[in-house]
Design a protein that fits this description.
single chain; mainly alpha; two-stranded antiparallel sheet; iron ion sequestering activity; membrane
Length: 221
């Protein structure tokens, strides 16, 4: 009887396992899974685009000037002009683009409300997900400026022309990898693919600008 009491249906009482997860704890969504990456993408797209554009365009501009001018002042002035003009252009272009998208989506939401005779309760989540033109504009302009400062700082303290050109190329390559990696991590996309894409694109832009400017400069046009 003692043995029978110690076992029930062939299962030892000492082997009974008590689940450690209690009352719906397992079904609770994690903090990471609740992040809306599409909402994050509204400003992330503008920031990544602005940083890469500032880095590549100003670096290419300085490399082009360096193809025909060895003076450091000429390269820095060209880089500064590219920074200011590019940041303003990116800000205006991003505002116009995102605001146009905003108006289109607002019009579509209103059209759906009228078609469904909806009082607007269901449309509130949609309104919260609309793109923010001012946020995109600020992110794009600041990111462009940060990217443009990289080649300028890399060239600012080097007097030797050949070494300066090499340092600019190395600094820009490293920054392209960093920007590509940061954008991939924040957007939850493949890191290696993103880094290679921006790196190869930046190299192509600098090489083409340098080559064409050198060709035009040698022809004395």
């Amino acid at each position: 009887m003692t043995n029978l009491g110690a076992r029930t249906n062939g299962i030892s009482l000492n082997q009974v396992e008590i689940p450690i997860h209690a009352n719906g704890v397992e079904s609770k969504p994690s903090e990471e899974s609740s992040i809306d990456y599409s909402q994050r993408g509204q400003w992330l797209r503008a920031a990544v685009l602005g940083a890469n554009d500032g880095l590549v365009s100003v670096a290419s501009l300085m490399m082009g000037i360096g193809a025909v001018k060895k003076e450091i002042s000429a390269m820095l002035i060209a880089g500064f002009a590219g920074l200011v003009a590019g940041a303003c252009s990116m800000a205006i272009g991003e505002f116009v683009s995102v605001y146009t998208q905003y108006e289109i989506e607002v019009t579509q939401i209103k059209r759906e409300r009228e078609a469904n005779n909806n009082g607007g309760v269901d449309g509130e989540p949609q309104m919260k997900r609309l793109p923010n033109p001012f946020q995109a504009t600020l992110a794009s302009a600041l990111a462009f400026s940060v990217g443009a400062l990289v080649p300028m700082l890399a060239a600012g303290f080097i007097r030797n022309h050949k070494i300066r050109m090499g340092v600019i190329g190395a600094a820009v390559s490293l920054a392209l990898l960093v920007f590509g990696g940061v954008g991939a991590v924040l957007g939850k996309t493949p890191v290696k693919r993103s880094c290679l894409r921006v790196l190869i694109g930046g190299w192509m832009a600098m090489a083409i600008t340098f080559g064409l400017t050198k060709l035009v400069g040698s022809a004395e046009l």
